[in-house]
Structure formats: structure tokens, C-alpha cells
Design goal:
Length: 142
């Protein structure tokens, strides 16, 4: 009986050691859109929120269309509990003008911005580019 209790305790400890890090990695929706990358390579999967649709907005402060659409994305993020907006800043901090040569711009083959990638609640890519932009801007009207 004592051996069975030890095995049970060992199994529980093993479960906690494996599940606890996974729980720590689970992301939640922030109060405002998170701004990431700042020109550096980034793994978008690290910013997915389980059960939510995540819109990645590739952007630059030097892009007038990006600045124009930004308030609409902020409102979308605030209004819809099921949608998370993450702004992927393609500019390195020391570069003035749109930083097409940044590591993240090269990583994702950016040729125009704003550029959207939309991932579904299941974490799979639903749309990107023009179809994603049409999807996202359609949500502005709702």
C-alpha cells in the first residue's frame, strides 16, 4: 500500500512538472493591443491566445495607412472579447522610414503594409494579406 501511495505521489509530481509550465505559457487577452517585434524576428505562435481570433497587424509608425487604421484596430480589440489584435512593428528603433530591411520584415516577406494575418481560435491561419484585410475591416462595421 505504501508503494502504491509513493507511485501516486510520483505520478502527481510528474503531472504538475509537465502541466505547470504549459499553464504558465498560456496567454490571455491584454487590455490594449500588444506591440511586438520592433524590427526583430518574432514567432507569431508565441502570441496566439487560445480560444480567440488573433489579428496580427504588420505596421510601422512611418506608414500613413497604418496610422489611419490603427484606431479602428484598437476599437476592435476593445469591443470584441473574441478578437485579439497584436501589432507587429516592422521598424527597428534606430531606423527612420518604413524598415523594409528589418529582420521581421524579411522573415515574413513584407512588401506592403498594413499587412494582416488572422489566426482562428484553434491557432490555425485563417487569412492573410488582402483577404485578411477584407475580413478585419468588415468587423469595423459590426
Amino acid at each position: 500500500m505504501k508503494r502504491l501511495s509513493q507511485l501516486g505521489a510520483l505520478a502527481l509530481a510528474t503531472l504538475v512538472l509537465h502541466v505547470q509550465p504549459l499553464l504558465a505559457q498560456t496567454r490571455a487577452k491584454a487590455a490594449a493591443p500588444e506591440r511586438i517585434a520592433f524590427g526583430q524576428e518574432v514567432n507569431l505562435a508565441d502570441y496566439l491566445v487560445p480560444g480567440k481570433t488573433v489579428v496580427f497587424d504588420f505596421t510601422s509608425e512611418f506608414c500613413p495607412p497604418c496610422r489611419a487604421i490603427s484606431p479602428h484596430l484598437d476599437k476592435l480589440h476593445a469591443k470584441r472579447d473574441d478578437v485579439v489584435v497584436v501589432k507587429v512593428d516592422i521598424n527597428r528603433p534606430d531606423v527612420r522610414g518604413i524598415d523594409w530591411g528589418s529582420p521581421v520584415a524579411k522573415q515574413y516577406g513584407m512588401q506592403s503594409i498594413p499587412h494582416f494575418k488572422v489566426f482562428g481560435p484553434d491557432g490555425k491561419l485563417q487569412a492573410e494579406g488582402k483577404p485578411a484585410r477584407t475580413l478585419v475591416t468588415g468587423w469595423f462595421e459590426e
